[in-house]
């Protein structure tokens, strides 16, 4: 009987979702490829650390600059077409970059511009893909959780597990190859999305005059901060991102100075995180159903805190790899639960705006975490930054437990509907 229930759940996801899943996986592989090879190409052009920093910043800054506007676009237009245009735009950027590499005309300015444009494409694609899940899947919590878990696993596998090593391997053969392959991945993703039927896809329509972009952005922000559950989820995710960014920013230093690993050992730690993230994404729906959303969130945050704390206390590479796997699994499970709750609470016509507002809040924790991690590692030791981050996350879980427990979250969708 349980098997039949699982099979029915798979049927309810439908072919449109599975095409979205496939396109997301292919697109994520492409994102992982250029995330790995853009810094390598930057180092070929210039050995300056500042050159590497500029490329990384250019790829990340679009989340701060355009995420709110992306939310408005995603809610105004067909989300499927937004994803297609995002993929085609990134395809064009990579074709141009590949031509510049072939003709030996590529320089740091072109590379930074390419990283920035690719980052913009990722913002629009990610916001549209996340907002489109309820369009292709019923808003039943079990189906949403299963769909979000599979999308999270696809993103993790593509961006962290398959894309980076594939891109780096192709780059070692010929620096042109990963960019050409990356362009083809985005073209393939766009074609798969274009093949998704739109018949029956809910899209809000209204005869009322269209609001200004600024008014719609404000509407999304008000919705986010006006709902106590959404506000708490965004705040907790932001605080978690502070620790997560500090953790990954200092990971190379931890691997070399404390764990005494060679260069490839650092890559293995990242792979351990990706493996954990895949498990967490696929198991999140079952965990939410069995234990409740609040338990998954609070246990996940506490567990990540404990794992990061252990990283600050041990110098064994195997233990460190296990802790990275734990953090990957628990952070991804949390992400799935947060996405599912947001999709249940927010009306479909507002989902893009609220999602982009939430993403902006969460992303502000990244620079803060990177700065704090560097300061603590410089003043004390790299392990102090991990120990402090672990204790901080455990305290965050304790402080927010009254708002994010099972009882509080069960009634959240009904309260929003009222």
UniProtKB/TrEMBL annotation:
Membrane-topology annotation of the record: Multi-pass membrane protein
Record bears the keyword Transmembrane helix: yes
Entry annotated with the keyword Transferase: no
Primary location recorded for the protein, binned into one broad class: membrane
Species, as recorded: Actinoalloteichus fjordicus
Organism ancestry: Bacteria, Bacillati, Actinomycetota, Actinomycetes, Pseudonocardiales
Superkingdom assignment: Bacteria
InterPro entries listed in its UniProt record: MFS_dom (IPR020846), MFS_trans_sf (IPR036259), TM_effector (IPR010290)
Protein name (database record): Arabinose efflux permease family protein
Keyword annotations from UniProtKB, A to Z: Cell membrane, Membrane, Transmembrane, Transmembrane helix, Transport
Residues spanning the signal sequence: none
Domain Major facilitator superfamily (MFS) profile: 16-414
Residues annotated as transmembrane: 20-45, 51-70, 232-254, 266-287, 294-312, 318-338, 359-380, 386-404
CC per GO annotation: plasma membrane
Single annotated GO MF: transmembrane transporter activity
Cellular localisation: Cell membrane
A matching Pfam family: MFS_3
